[in-house]
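FIELD: query
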Amino acid sequence: MTAGCPQDESPAGGPRSPEVRPPAHPGPRDAAAGDEPGPRTLSGDEPGPRTLASLLGDPRAVAHLALPARVGVREPWPDWLDPRVRDAYVEQGISSPWRHQVVAAQLAWTGTHVMIATGTASGKTLAFGMPALTAALLPRDPTSGRRAPGVLYLAPTKALAHDQLAGLHALGLADLRAAALDGDSPEEERAWTRAHARWVVTNPDMLHRAVLPGHERWRGLLASLRFVVIDEAHTYRGVFGSHVALVLRRLRRVCARYGASPTVILASATAADPASSGARLIGEPVSVVDQDDSTRGSLDLVVWNPSAVAPQEAADADLGGADLQAADADLEGADLVSGPGPRPSALHDSIELTCRLVDSATTTLTFARSRRGVEVIAAAVRERAARGAQFRAYRGGYLPEERRALEAQLRSGELIGMAATSALELGIDITGLDAVVLSGWPGTHASFRQQVGRAGRRGASALAVLVVREDPLDQYLSRHPDLLTGATVEATVLDPGNPYVLAGHLCAAAAEVPLTDDALEAEFGPGSQQICAALADRGLLRRRRGGWYWTDHSRPADLVDLRGTAGGPVRVVEHDTGRVLGTVDASAAAATVHEDAIYVHQGATFQVISLDLESRLATASPVVTDVSTHARTQSHVELVSPYQSQRWGPAEIVHGEVVLSSQVTSYLVRRWPGGHVVGERLLDLPETRLSTMATWWSIPSGELRAAGIDDAAAPGALHALEHASIGILPLLATCDRWDLGGVSTALHPQTGTALISVHDGHPGGAGFAARGFEQALPWLRATREAIATCGCEDGCPACVQSPKCGNGNNPLDKAGALRLADRLLATGPDPTPASSPVMDGPPQ
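FIELD: result
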C-alpha cells in the first residue's frame, strides 16, 4: 500500500539572551523573588485577566521567556549625508542614527555591497535610506550627459513596496522623484517612471517581466543606477530565491551594458550566515553589519499549550457561533480524527487570548497559519469580544485596495487588531502594537522572529504568546522553549545552478544581451554551457561565434515562473454578481476550490459552483452551512536519479531526483462543531506530475521484521514515520511542512524494499530535502523524540498525524514507527560510501 501526502506538505541580528522561567501554577509568580519586576498590565487600567500575571497563572502557560530591554548606541550623522535628508529624519523625531546604521550606510556609500542583518525594528530602512536618498537627490552631471543617480528598491510583496513608497513621501523631500512599478501600475504611470523617477519601488516579478525584457526603454534608469536595495532578503529562499538570484545576475549584465555597476544593499532581520546567503543571492561578496545598536523594549514571550489541560476542561468553551466550519485541516486536531469528546485546540485558545487582549484595549496582531484560520479567528473575535467591531481579518487573496485600507485603519488606531497570515509578517510599518498571538509555530525561526518582532516597536515593551498546535514540531518546541530564542535561524537554502530554474533564465538573458563564452560561467555558474547546448537542441537558442543567441519568436520571460504559480492565480468570483472575492494559487486550486468546495471570505461562506483550471476561474455562491470540505489525494513517487547515498546497515538513505504523480480524487465533508466526517464525494480532476528532489529511505523487509513490524503493520508504521519526519524537518531547513511532500510504501517497485520519501514541493527542488540528507542523523533523532515523548497512545497530530494527509491519516501505527526509528538509529550511518552507483547531480 502507498500512502502519499502531497498536500500535507506541499506547495539577524542575534537574539537577546532570555531568562527561561517555568510559570508557577496555579497562581502568578511572586514578584518579591527579585528576578522580574512584577506583573505588567499591558494596556488599560484594570487588573485580572488583562495582566501578564494572569496568563502565567494558567496551567496552559508552559514556559515564560523574559527578554530584557536593550539600551541603544547613537552616532553623529555622516558628513556626506545630504542636509535635506538629515533634516527630514530629524523632523520625524530621529535626533541621530544608531551606530549600526552609520556603519552600514558608510559601507554602501563607498561602494561596498552590504547586508544589514540586525533585528526587527532596528532601523534598517534608515540605514539604506541615508546613502540611497543622498544619491537620488544629487544633481545631474552636465559633463556626462547621464541622468542623475538612481535607486531600485526591491520588495518581495506589493504591500511592503507601497509601504516603503508611503514612507518616502512622508519625508517631504520635494526634489525626490519616487514611483511604484508593479502589476497595478497603469501605462501612463510607467511612462512617467521610465522618464523621470529617481527612486523606483518594485518587486522581482516586474524586474523580470517588464524592466529587463524592455531594458532599452528603461535605459535611462539602468545606466544611472547607483544602488539596488533588496529588502527582507531572507524571503528569497528555495526555488523562488533561486529565481530571484538569477534575475539579479541578469540585472547586473544589463546595467554593465550601459556602463553602470550599482552597489547592492540587502536588509534582513533574520538572515542566517548573512555573508554566505547574501553572496549566493547577488553573486558577489558582501560585507555584513550584524551588531544591533538600537534600543529595544522588553519582551515577555509565553509558550501556551492547550494540551496542558484535560479535554473536558476545554469542552464547555463556546466560540460564539463563529464559522468553525471554515477551520482548515492545518488548525485543529479535531479536524484530523474523530474521537470521543472535544479536544484542546490551538485555534480555540488563540481566539480566547485574542479576545482577552482586545477587551483590555491591547493592540493585538494574531497570526494564523492558513487563510481559513484567519477568517475563523476574526469572525470569532468580532462576535465574542466587546471591542470586536474593531477587529478584522487580513490575508493574501484580498484585493489590493482592501489590504491598503486595513493597513491604514490599523495604523490610525481605527482598528484595535487584526488576524493575519504571514502577509503581515514582513516589514510593513505597523507601529504601536502591544501584543502578538501566534496560532501555531509559523514554520521557521525566521518567520517566528519576524512575527514576534511586530510587537513593541519603537522601544515599547511587549507581549508575545506562542500557542502551540498538536503538531510534532510545535510540541517539540514546547518541551524545548530555549530553542525559540537560543537557536540561530535556519540556513537560507537557494540554488541558482538548479537546471530547472537556470534554463529559462539563460533564454531570457540571451534575449536581453547575447551570452558570450568568455563570461557565461562567470555570470551563471558551472554547467551553464551544457544547458545552453541543450536549449539549442530544442531550438530555443542558436550557437554563433563566441556565444549564444535567442532566436525564438516567443517572450523568453514566459518560460520562467518566479513564484511557481503555474501561470497565475485562480480568481474566485461570486456567481450572481461577478464580484471578485479573492484568489488562490493555481497549485492549490484543485484541493481548495474544486466543485462544491466551501470557500470563506471575511467570515462569509461560499460554495464553489465550478472550477475551470484552463481559464483559472472558479465561481461560487453564498451559502449558510455547518460543513467544511477537505480534499483527498492519491500519489506515487518514481525514483529517477540518485545523486548521493549512505548506508545505514542493510538500509540506505538516498538523495536524488524523483517524479511525483498526484491526483485529487475526492473530498471529505465534515460537520461542525466537532469536525466529524459525514461523507466522502468523488472528484474527476486531472493528474499532476512534479519533477523535484527528494530524500528517501530504502528499508529491506528484514529490517522491518527486526523492528517487530510484520507485513500487515508495515504500511501504518512507514506512513507514521513519514509524517513525523516531515513535521520535524523544518527544525533543520528554512522551510515549513507546506514546502514539503511525502510518500511511503511497503514495497516500492523500483527498489524492491519498503520506502519512505520526503520531497521538495517545488519543480526542480528547493534544497530542503537535501538538507535532510545532510542532517540525517539529527533529523531522525529529533523525529524519534517527537514520537516517543508524545503522551498519546495511538498517535495524534502532535506526533504522527499530518494536518493535510491525502489519505486521511490512515493507516498509522505510532508504536511501529517508534520501533522502526529505533532500529535505524541502532544501526546508524555507515562511514563508508554506499555500494550502489551514485550519479552526479546539480549542487544543492
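FIELD: remark
The mean pLDDT is 83.
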